[in-house]
Structure formats: structure tokens, C-alpha cells
């Protein structure tokens, strides 16, 4: 299946609170920190993919690669607008981390295409674990949050699930099997994942310091609980991605993700699909298809 790029007009006006989930500054900071990385990471993924695609003979993989690039472009453009709001309204100091990321990705650009494709496929493997965590725990993580942010973040991870095979397929199209290519790919899982986690951590640490929470034990304990949950859910995906013969197709999408994709395909496209974060199940933000509605009506 070729991924479907969706340009969704998520809006981040000045009245949007950078602390967009009341009572949960630690998770808010984790998401804001990860968002900060996206306009540096994702253009790097796009440049790497663009360089690799002329060497891909399979037209379906090449077309998926182009769709991957368009999806990633939409992601980082939305994150950049969101991050500008964060810096403008409360955290201008984040610009220092952005400067460091610019330098870091410039250094990484000098590495071989194989190393950069392995980094790309490796980061993409991590996103599947993050999707599973965010979607399965959407109620405790996003319940009561500003819907504009929750809907934007979960849209991003829906599309990460949708294009989960692309970087892996391109890596294999270019480099095939063999022990060395496998080892480079396995190292890429750690390289891509920990690089992004490092810069995300710098972002949330800065935010929690600014909020006066970083040195408070109660905040550290809440952060440790969130991070522990993240690690428990994401680590198995990283370990499986490092095994020989790994194929992202073996990682099933959460049902909620498939429902989101099916719902969006039939919904009106003029407004951003906003989640009801006060609903106990936070269902996909689309009406059920007519067949499902009539099936529930009494005879
Ligand atoms: Fe993305
Ligand atoms: Fe991606």
C-alpha cells in the first residue's frame, strides 16, 4: 500500500497554552521536547530518502518513498509552526538546542548513504513503539489535553504507522542482505533512536527547568513514571527491529490507527479532525461509516 500524504491545517494560535495538558507538565514537556526535534530530523530523513530513491529499481518502493517524503514534509512543517509558538510564547531558550541540532545533522550528512539510510530505518522502527504507546494509552496520556495538540500528535503517529515499511524497504533495495549490511542496519536502530531521544531529553529538561519543576522530587517521580512507561513499550520494538530478518510488516498497526485512516478517507477534509479528549475512549475523530451506524439501530 502506498502511504497517503494528508496536508491537514492544524492551527496553533497564540492562545494555545504551551502547557497544553493541565496537571501533567512532565508528559507535556516530553511531547514538546520531541516536537522540537522533528524540523531537524525529518528534513534529514527526506534528504536521505531523496538521495537513495534513484537507486531503487522497484517502482512501487520508489513511489512509496516519494509518498514517505511528502508525509514527513507535512509533519515537520506542522511541528515547526507548533515549535515557533512554544518559543514565542514561553521557551525562547529552545533555540540553542535547535542550533545544536542543525550542527549535528550537518555532521551526520557527511556519513555514507548506507549509514544514513540505516539511521532513517532505525528511527522509523522506534516510531512504531511510540505509536503503540501513545495510542493504547491515549486516555491517560491525552485525556483532558488541548485537542488541537493531541489531534496533531496522533495524526503524525498514524502516518508513521502507515509508512512503517518504506525506509526498511529502501534500505533493503539498496543494500540487500549480508552480515555487514545487517549489522549496519542494527546499529542504525540504536543510532537513530537514541540520537532523537537525546535531543528530546534536552528539550524537556529545559522546559521543566523553566517551569521550576526539574529539581522537584515529585516532578521527577512523575517524569520517571512516564519515561518508564515509554521505555517498557518502545524497547521491545527496538529489540525486534535489531534482529536479523526483521520486517516492519510483522508489527501490526493498532486498530485505532487503521480506523483513523479509514475514517479520514471518507470524511470531509476542510477542517482538522479534532479528537474528543474528554471522551473516556478518545475515539477516532470521524463518524462511523453508514453501514456501522445502521447495524446498531434497533430493528
Ligand atoms: Fe514523521
Ligand atoms: Fe516517519
Give the key terms.
299 residues; mainly alpha; Ribonucleotide Reductase, subunit A
Q: Beta-strand percentage?
A: under 5%
Largest sheet, strands/sense/barrel: none
Distinct small molecules bound, one entry per kind: fe (ii) ion
Q: State the end-to-end distance.
A: 38 Å
Give the tally of structural domains. Answer: 1
SSE class: mainly alpha
CATH C-level label:
Mainly Alpha
Element pattern in H and E: HHHHHHHHHHH
Mean pLDDT: 95
Number of strands: 0
Secondary structure tally, helices: 11
Level-2 CATH architecture: Orthogonal Bundle
Shape: globular
Question: What does the secondary structure layout of this molecule look like, with pairings?
Answer:
Layout: H1 25-52, H2 59-89, H3 94-108, H4 113-136, H5 138-142, H6 147-162, H7 166-175, H8 179-210, H9 217-241, H10 255-266, H11 290-296
Helix pairs in contact: 1-2, 1-3, 1-4, 1-8, 2-7, 4-6, 4-7, 4-8, 4-9, 6-10
The site of one fe (ii) ion (FE2) has 5 residues, from helix 4.
Give a summary of the structure in a few sentences.
It is built from eleven helices and no strands.
